[in-house]
Amino acid sequence: xxxxxxxxxxxxxxxxxxxxxxxxxxxxxxxxxxxxxxxxxxxxxxxxxxxxxxxxxxxxxxxxxxxxxxxxxxxxxxxxxxxxxxxxxxxxxxxxxxxxxxxxxxxxxxxxxxxxxxxxxxxxxxxxxxxxxxxxxxxxxxxxxxxxxxxxxxxxxxxxxxxxxxxxxxxxxxxxxxxxxxxxxxxxxxxxxxxxxxxxxxxxxxxxxxxxxxxxxxxxxxxxxxxxxxxxxxxxxxxxxxxxxxxxxxxxxxxxxxxxxxxxxxxxxxxxxxxxxxxxxxxxxxxxxxxxxxxxxxxxxxxxxxxxxxxxxxxxxxxxxxxxxxxxxxxxxxxxxxxxxxxxxxxxxxxxxxxxxxxxxxxxxxxxxxxxxxxxxxxxxxxxxxxxxxxxxxxxxxxxxxxxxxxxxxxxxxxxxxxxxxxxxxxxxxxxxxxxxxxxxxxxxxxxxxxxxxxxxxxxxxxxxxxxxxxxxxxxxxxxxxxxxxxxxxxxxxxxxxxxxxxxxxxxxxxxxxxxxxxxxxxxxxxxxxxxxxxxxxxxxxxxxxxxxxxxxxxxxxxxxxx
Length: 563
Fold this sequence. Notes:
36% helix, Herpes Virus-1, elongated, B30.2/SPRY, Znf_RING_CS, 9 helices, alpha+beta, Double Stranded RNA Binding Domain, 9-stranded mixed β-sheet, single chain
């Protein structure tokens, strides 16, 4: 295959699967991917924060419309046909030799060696064993091949393999961390489901009891109205009974007088005796009370208008009551259970994994502690490089940025861009935290915690992202608190790494200066962060002490492996 064909094939490779495009689709940012690769890449990560291009990290809030790149698909198809059926050449190919560009003198091209690792233990052209690795061409070199790569960045094959194994180990650890976080999240969600059921059950009982009490009050009011009607009815009955007795008495008296008059009428008496008896009987008849007084009995009822009015008022009252209860429910401020979701960037698969990582240069950060943030139980040194926990509270003036609850302090310097590193010495086995957080101007901290920190609690070392705890085999293997730690911040990658340092110290209690020399460092943990503002180093100290270390000027630059 010619170099032009190899270059074309490289351009037709998907950056996810590193093979020729299959059913290519175009994103709004202009990058192409295999449809299946893009779907799997997006399915493997949490899309709560939106979607992003695996190559340029351009973010899309909604799922982009994936349009098939027909022209690119046709180019790939024609390329595959030409590759599978190459034209026959009658003339022998010229021997490929190294030139000033530094290409390897192997029969295969540089592009082929980028993707095809060596399967033989030595150089097929020179018959020498592999000894070097070219970073630019990602190819193994023998001693003779090395001469044509003088202008390239090369390293020993042993070192390249060690760095590649380190990259693989870190990727494995990253996935282990992700798996632990996901497993912990599943457990948390299951636990939250039980808490939710129990909490809402208690709430239903409260609401049911409240409405039952309201129903009892309504029943009491109903009985009160019915008692009033009964009382009024009894009063009317008493009046009617009195009238009946009075009329019956008049009726009996008039009946008696009537019988006496009829008896006198039927007697055959002399005229003089009849007149005498008549006068007495007539007096009784005239004096008899036969008058009947009128009596009005009022009908009591509720007309339709009154019934509708009462029903309307009752419905309005019920609605107001229901709304008031719902408003009170929505005003609850107590957190039942809280879980901060892990940032999606931490679990995002890298689009391209380098076989041999390149080195990046970090600059030493010149840090000082910010006395305006120091908790009242922390005492700062005059040079603002040391902080120590004290049982006696310091007479610090009030300041809106001062920590009030946790014994914490931040540095005065924050970083939004670039790559930086710093080292600290730690004394005390009770509890301390080394980390960083985002801070805005004049922010009131009150009880805020450091966003990303490594915590020693007297028994073990743990990594915390807010309230989420991360565990790994490296952290679990730390049986003693590291006395010196290095922190590396890469703002461009969003990476915050912590290293345990091992080196001879001139002062066991507090190292003042770190000298240049051989160092052994162990990567403890890396946070993949998405800052919302400048990142400030910070510390938590409980019966502990921290000091920011000063370095010689010739150690300001630090080279680390780019993952």
